[in-house]
Design a protein that fits this description.
By secondary structure, this protein is mainly alpha-helical. It is built from 14 helices and 6 strands. It is about 35% helix and about 5% strand. The strands form 3 sheets. Strands 1-2 form a two-stranded antiparallel ribbon. A two-stranded antiparallel ribbon has the order 3-6. The longest helix has 16 residues. The relative contact order is 0.15. The N terminus is likely disordered. It binds protoporphyrin IX containing FE (HEM) and 2-acetamido-2-deoxy-beta-D-glucopyranose.
Length: about 375
């Protein structure tokens, strides 16, 4: 007692500031402008600024959505049996191979857009690092999305990903769960958070012929839980390429629903996890952030990477309210699937039903 009191007194009398300073003191970068705790991260500041201002144009729009999708399509290219480098940038370097994979439909547009930035900064960072940095930055453009850590130091990719590792929208839940399981996503919650959460800030350019920028939920520029509601409404599903084409979502006008999201919300393996995120912003953002971080490290040894999280700006807080039902709908329109708990009770938006506007395209001229 006496001893510990004496220790506390000693601790209090020590210059606490300098102890903290060891961990948090920022030094001036060679550019004379930015400061960093780890000077090895200084070279990233101009890259961050270029991505934010010129690629993402400071918004949670089409480019941010594309950058997030690219994180997944690069990272998931690894398997214990088939090999592959995971989050290694192979989708950029070996684009001629990986863009032939059917699941990478639409990735050509994203690469066309991000490619010049990636190549411009290739002396500063590898393609794998660039894709993950752009993904982390895309999240801090979307209100409600978490700020995730960023690690630097991925080696140059060695080869293209093996084929058939990216899930497709007409895959069964069993196969989606199995594919994610192979890369270490072991609970339905972490799978559903990363798929549903990302599709909260997303839309489709290549699913419905002739229509671009069709949102997956009512709020594609806000990272919220509305996707978990909108997909649980009774309504049409849409498989996309190779499946039944021609209709868009009927419950939420202007949106489109992937069959994979529809089934994740309903299959007994995943439906309670899906429902658990509806109107649960904090849990969703947390589980999603953990999941994207996990994706960003696939095929990488975190101990060999440098933590440059300090270059990622602060997240934009969520200021929206609770999730809601579209005008005119009631809880009876929710297709209850989880057998052990009821869907959270939601209010209906006032007013007449309106169509959700399409997401403006970053590259209006080259969609095919
Ligand atoms: C079962 C797993 C998944 C399937 C089947 C799937 C499928 C799709 C499809 C078909 C599209 C529309 C592409 C287009 O037509 O342009 C899409 C868009 C998107 N996906 Fe996924 N996805 C899955 C998981 C994920 C994950 C884990 C992430 C990120 C962590 C992600 C992020 C996105 C984003 C951000 C978009 C919108 C892209 C844009 O608007 O340009 N997806 N997804
Ligand atoms: C796409 O592949 C071509 C040919 O391999 C390559 O020259 C180009 O740099 C690649 N694009 C990106 C963004 O890496």
């Amino acid at each position: 007692m006496v001893f510990s009191a004496a220790l506390s007194a000693l601790a209090l009398s020590l210059p606490l500031l300098s102890v903290n300073a060891l961990r948090t003191r920022r030094a001036l970068c060679p550019d004379g402008v930015n400061t960093a705790i780890n000077l090895a991260c200084c070279s990233l500041f101009p890259v961050v600024q270029d991505i934010q201002e010129n690629f993402l144009t400071n918004e949670c729009g089409d480019s941010a959505h594309g950058a997030l999708r690219l994180v997944f399509h690069d990272a998931i290219g690894i398997s214990p049996t088939a090999g592959g480098g995971g989050a290694d940038g192979s989708i950029a370097t070996f684009n001629e191979t990986e863009l032939t994979f059917p699941a990478n439909l639409g990735i050509d547009d994203i690469l066309d857009e991000i490619g010049p930035f990636l190549l411009k900064h290739s002396n500063t960072m590898s393609p794998g690092d660039f894709i993950q940095l752009a993904g982390a930055l895309s999240l801090v453009q979307c209100p409600g999305a978490p700020r995730i850590p960023f690690f630097m130091g991925r080696a140059q990719p060695k080869a293209a990903s093996p084929p058939n590792l990216v899930p497709q929208p007409f895959d069964s839940v069993a196969s989606i769960v199995q594919r994610f399981g192979e890369v270490g996503f072991t609970t339905p919650e972490e799978i559903v958070a990363v798929v549903g959460g990302s599709h909260s800030v997303a839309g489709a350019d290549d699913v419905v012929p002739g229509l671009q920028g069709l949102p997956f939920d009512q709020t594609p520029s806000v990272f919220d839980t509305q996707i978990f509601v909108d997909v649980q409404l009774r309504g049409t599903i849409f498989t996309g390429q190779g499946g039944n084409q021609g209709e868009t979502e009927t419950s939420v006008l202007g949106t489109v629903r992937l069959q994979s999201d529809h089934l994740l919300a309903r299959d007994s393996q995943t439906n309670c996890a899906w429902q658990s995120f509806a109107n649960n912003q904090a849990a969703m953002a947390e589980a999603f952030g953990q999941g994207v971080l996990k994706l960003s490290l696939l095929g990488q040894n975190q101990d060999e990477l440098t933590d440059c999280s300090e270059v990622i700006p602060a997240a934009i807080p969520f200021t929206g309210g609770p999730a809601t039902l579209p005008p005119g709908l009631t809880m009876n329109d929710i297709e209850q699937a989880c057998a052990t708990a009821a869907f959270p009770s939601l209010a209906t938006q006032p007013g007449p039903a309106t169509s959700v506007p399409a997401i403006p395209q970053a590259d209006d001229d080259d969609d095919s």
